[in-house]
Fold each of these.
Amino acid sequence: MNDQINPDTALVLFSGGQDSTTCLAWALSRFARVEMLGFTYGQRHAIELECRDRLLDGIKALRPDWAARLGDSHTLAIPTLSEISDTALTRDVAIEMGADGLPNTFVPGRNLVFLTFAAALAYRRGIRHVIGGMCETDYSGYPDCRNDTIKALQSALNLGMAKNFELHTPLMWLDKAATWRLADELGGAGLVDLIREHSHTCYLGERGALHDWGYGCGECPACTLRAKGWREYAAQHVNH
């Protein structure tokens, strides 16, 4: 048990997707030591977790100063999440909108569970800052991605663990085009190309065809958002 919280360390929720990779770069530009945490919970797109090593290798090659700051990478298995969920992310069913206005890719409680486990790990590791890619600007409407949810959870975690964690969501108010632009600002064309080619977003786990925005089915909500953001970013990039 580490009773001392280090203000210069961070733990990033790192799934191997575009958003979490951008958040990892954001953390590496701000903190002296950065650890990573991914989850396996029976998700259909578990292939995203296999992308993490290639992304980390690319980041290390891109920026030696970032390589020196990278700490341990953790993976936690929480199969119970899929056992109590009936969603298109954890079942082989078509992706569609539900009667409640949410896509059936919504896994109830997922981000609440992720951040609670992350805070528990951070508690043990002596880490104060926990970073996630939640966003309520350009997203599928998930209620656990909202800023109010994250702020409320931060209060609950600090009360329940008697610590002073800070939950950071650097993408919260960015649309997907701005997320690509942030990656460009943090790591230049090298980071953008790394994320485009080696990160994974597609809910169906499709990595057959390489589009200009990366791999994916091109039709699920995650691919649609990523492709739309890429087109807007690329257009802005050409104009500037």
Note: The longest strand covers residues 6-13.
Amino acid sequence: MDLYFSPLACSMASRVALYEAGAEANYLEVDPPTKTVLSDGTDFRTVNPIGLVPTLRTDDGVVLTENAAILQYIADRFPQSGLGAAAGIERTRLHQWLCFIGTELHKGLFIPVLDRKAPQETKAYALEKNLSRLDYLDNYLKGRDFLLDQFSVADAYLVTVINWTMATPLIELAKWPNVKAYYERLRQRPSIAKAIAEEFELYKAEQARKKAAA
């Protein structure tokens, strides 16, 4: 299978899940400004017209988009990994957390704050409206190792999003000690440590390319 990604973007969650599952995949880096696949110079939009990562092409040639859907596909494709949840209330809880991370944290809180073109008023509004989501998460994580009863694709997504606090000084993780402890603990997990280290190096190379082109 092929995973189209950009360094340290939300697509890193799929990389973590694939590493956790011990799955083989081709990792194809997409340059965000140009939507170019760096390995061959092709236009990524011929694969995903919206031009967003992650995008996954399965071994059967099916193209999947949207982070939560791809993560659930990986969990179902590799059930021995334990990344998913059994049918019933546990699977619904997994859906609940994937939705919460994707809407309340990823899109609701972090995207406005990370957007360099967003007015300061927009950033301030996003913080005022959505920091309470971190309060909720902090209370939930008290005394818990994972979002569910075991490490799941929801944790892979959450760690990826919390990792963005390194680039968002307006969100000081120390204010949420349980979230901070969760993040620091999970980033030592081999699959996560490997993904962060590899994508950080690719991110540095990406920034060097931008600087050279400026």
Note: The first helix runs from residue 12 to 21.
Amino acid sequence: MTSTTYRTADVDGFKVFYREAGRAGAPKLLLLHGFPSAGHMFRDLIPLLADKFHIVAPDLPGFGQSDMPSRETFSYTFDNIARVIERLTEVIGFDRFAIYVFDYGAPTGFRLALSHPERITGIISQNGNAYEEGLSDGWTPIKAYWQDPSPANREALRGFLTPETTRWQYTHGVPDPAAVSPDGQNLDNFYLARPGSDDVQLDLFGDYKSNVALYPAFQDYFRKHKPPILAVWGKNDPFFIPPGAEAYKRDNPNAVVKLLDTGHFALETHAREIAEAIRAFLA
């Protein structure tokens, strides 16, 4: 089955929407998206890999078509997001799989690896950071909120949630912005505009410090278990810079690093190149 189907799983009462393609029994690949996107960011990649892999691309809790419960009933932390996604893999029978992690998908996927290292067959990190040297100066206002979670510092982060900033994230560092489809960014902005979504995202900005605190644990996992790692990186990313890709080699000398002349959302311009790299890597 190379066509994509669109499904919803009941994960202990939490509705998780996901895209699925490929043949049951083929090597499994879990695609984990980032901010401010959803599984739709993989719309060009999935058809390029579905003949070889059984692919699942969920929308993280609070994103896309998955449930976005109130902040009073669900605490928006990366620990809780990872718990839901881990349970999703169990519910749908994803027992051993490679992970493609991007942006927020990285701390989500790496938590899965820490919890069950035996389930992870490989890691493709596309601008998915696990090293402090991979954080650019663009994180400065968010770091200020970590240090002082005052209403003023929280309010200062709302600029990250505007349609203009979403478009900038998609086009910054892309040699030809006309090569970037407006479809993904417009859908992201639709989801960001939902009532309550802004505070969900601000909560996650604040909790991102928990990911940085786990970087040493992630790095210890890379050293101890030595999962195959492919770091394929938009080298002009304004948030996660190339030293974060190169750092994987420090903990796993066999890590493969591929830098692409594009920005944060590398799949928008380089889906075919990334698919070819994944095929070679997971062959």
Note: The longest helix spans residues 197-225.
